[in-house]
Amino acid sequence: MLFVFAVIVAALVLFATEALPVDVTAIAVMVALMLAEPVTVLAADVGLLAEPVYVLHQPGDGLSPLDRGLSGFASTATITVLAMFILSDGVQRTGIVQILGAKIASLTGDNETKQLGATVGLVAPISGFINNTAAVAILLPMVTDIAHKGKLSPSKLLLPLSYASMFGGMLTLIGTSTNILASQLSAELIGRPFSMFEFTQLGIIVTIVGTIYLLTVGRYLVPSRIPAEEDLTREFEMGEYLTEVVVREDSPLIGQTVEEALRVSEFDVDIVQLVREKRTFLEPFGQKAIRAGDVFAVRTDRDTLVDLLDVEGLDVIPEVEVDDAELETATERKNLVEVVVAPGSSLIGETLVSTSFRQRYDATVLALRHGQELYRQRMDHVTLRIGDTLLVQATPDSIDRLNRNNDFIVAQEVERPDFRQSKIPVAVGIVAAVVGVAALTPIHIVISALGGALAMVLTGCLRPPELYDAVQWDVIFLLAGVIPLGIALQETGGADLLAELFVMGAGSVLTAGGGLAVVLGLMYIVTALLTNIISNNASVVLMIPVAIETARQLNANAFAFVLAVTFAASTAFMTPVGYQTNLLVYGPGGYRFTDYLKVGAPLQAVFAVATTLGIAYFWGLAPA
Fold it and tell me: By Cβ atoms counted within 10 A, which residue in 191, 336, 423, 586 is the most buried?
């Protein structure tokens, strides 16, 4: 048990500090559990238990440390979540969500209440049936465009988008990976899994409560961090960093290619576009030889520009403002966009240099935003994270490639000719069939979901190679790593010990006349606080065994305590790191860490009350 606690503490520290990606931490946990030997620990050694316990498994259970450590990969929860990613991607590739979003966006105009209502009203129900992270990723461009067209700061809509996706995910079993994982744990520990619509009635209540909060109190608490500008160069405050220069007759750059000039330059400068003989060129133009009279739009700061002019033989073109209109003269289509680093992106932990971003994507990064931090110079070595927003200029073809790349989310609506709109009825029908079969027949959700994933391919909604791109592998490895940790916590007596400590702490509440509902509320709050620091899936794995043992010690309904943990783990409102959707809007919204606490803490408190009362009413707190 001491070994398991040591692994848990190390994992919690790594999850909270993000010293390693969460999936890497989960793999480390898995390896640690597999390497440990089944050593007997006597009560006299630990002073806690009255009988021998084992670090990983009990004699005769038929599972070795190796089997137990790898059990997460064979878990029905892991396989179900994997299948749900594929189903979500199949729906996404039809374009139905974008079509719905466009129709709703056309009705909002510049009315903030309508914009906010449309955002919450669209993402919440969608998140009940497709992965909520995917729902936010799909709708983020639409919401950003609604804000820009309505002269509203995107910050006012993006945080509500994230929050609404979270409480919308509590409408059905398949709304979040956390629900699916909690269902498996509940089945294993108390013999009661969740049905497809097990908690839909409570999910509807918290969705209504959350929507009312966001439209009233939350509306005034959510800050306007990003200027309400349609011009992206103004939004990123590029006025002092974009300039047009002309190559003089005596410039030493003449004859060099653009790529050579950039490579040997000691200055922090990017060439954004080349204008030659009234023609404008965007990347890739690295092999073009520089001529006298060439005009470059460059990204650099004023001090560097002064040195650059003298050394490289350039002159500033006066009275030219390099704005969106100037940068988009090269083509009739949009070539200046915001690009968000997506969850599971291969760029996470890398830099613009290490990824060779300019050469790899034929695109120039003009600025980089992480939360409230805005970089417009010396960006090449900034480590990229989920939700980082890049201001990118590229040709329409390059932007199309970025838009199709799962590493990115283009934060403006871009035409997608590859949407399979003819497959909309098929994809929606497959998801409805998966839900119906799981809800109305004895067939397990994992079989229904895998059958639906197969149907997506057989009907052409997805192509076979797209299956692997559809899955967020970091989430799969996270689940596979933390599930064995929860089993170890349960079987070594660790959950019993933590439950005893929780009951001791709650004892004063019961002594003071507080009932089981108050203790249930405390369980919700403890889980919510933990979830806002570490992964939601890790919180469920650690807290459900504790919740069940707490209920047993208090002679209460264990299923009610499982539901409290499940709802709390899926509604992490108070930090950007508590949930992937919060990270996803962190950069595009320009938020500060404290914004999540200011807006999310009251909402978390409201949900603690609503969820506790709802569970007590629908399921009761007395033992079944």
Answer: 586
